[in-house]
User: What shape does this take?
Amino acid sequence: MSVGVEALFTAALGLKLPWVVAKVELDTDKRRIDFEVSCDAKQLPCPACGVSGQGIHDRVRRSWRHLDFFQYEAWLHAGVPRVDCSACGKTTQADVPWSRPGSGFTLLFEALALSLCQSLPVAQAAALLRVRSKRLWRRIEHYVQVARAQEEMKGVKVIGIDETSIKRGHEYVTVVHDLSAKRLLFMTAGRNHETVKAFKTDLVAHGGDPAEIAHVCMDMSAAYTKGVTEVLPQAQISFDRFHVIALANEAMDAVRRAEMLDQPRVVHAALGTERKTIRNLMWAMRQDHSGWNNKQLNTMYLLQRSTLKSARAWRLKEALRTTYTQCVSSNNEQQATAAMQSWISWARRSRLDPFKKLATTLKERLPGVVRGMLDGRSNAYVEAMNGMLQQTKTAARGFRTVKNFVAIAYLRMSKLQHLPANPLRPAIQRNQGVTRYRSGRQVPLETA
Ligand SMILES: [Zn+2]
Assistant: This one.
């Protein structure tokens, strides 16, 4: 290494006295670059009590992984001084400015890792960085906790409460979104009314005012209704359309399954005996008609001409979807109430138990159901949020515990303001000072 390289790297690493780069070693075979960083001070302030001018007891060898230097894996090494303090009597290891105490990564390396985990599955980010996933998960948890502690939740007025399972069908978590700011506010294990209380406590801890929450969009579970009624009594509840349509789909599935079990001969007489036909039927009934393939078109044609209970169930489900579409676009409370009442009375007379039950549920909660039909602001976002939650599940694949899932969801969906910045952001604005040529004239980009 030529003279001046150490000084160059001292500056590039952002080191300040007493820390300097003492030696740089590049090993092209091993594809790594090692920086020996040293601190020659004879005296340092005590890291424990802050009294200056304390003697150095000894030095402890430590290493940190840093951002790659071109294609080379970069490492920092240093003998970190331990300070003997005459004031407090303790021997304490000095902090190094490039790393958190106890971490084997530099701060910039951790910041890059976090940025990668915001868009890549964690296992993939770990492979890219050539570290074990577990080490990234620990950082995600740490930085999310630090960032969330500083997060402001003032002025939250419209929220959505939902549940999701971290693995298909078990271990549920409750998710609370700020529907106006489109960010995840809170996530916790469980899905009972206590989770709503836990949200309120968290909201208050972050400067939010529960009394300001005017509107809650959620599913029809008794637990959340109980929680919101107790904890946010002034809030208006609206039941979101996705949950209502999902309930209609469940009712329809229940009718189809029961009919297939109880009267397979009747079903086969109407639709044909091929085993595939029955599977086609299941998917076609759930899907929008625009997604039907030829076989499904055929099966659904037969279904609609039949007198099967499944046919009635499908018509009821479709009618509910149409009711929603019409009421959302007309956005009129009276019309929506009338349309929903007419669907409810049809469902109650349908002689299909799952739909009679659904009709009762909707009737009991009609005002909230109607509000959900008119509440255009939340629906698109709830759908987008579900998509993001799915991606978050993918990001945690292989390490999907409640703790990890909560941490990665906050990292990706909370728009946290106090995370470390990505160290690979451009040094200067990309279009700054750039000129391009047009018809032979040189024009600054801004005016081009
Ligand atoms: Zn001291």
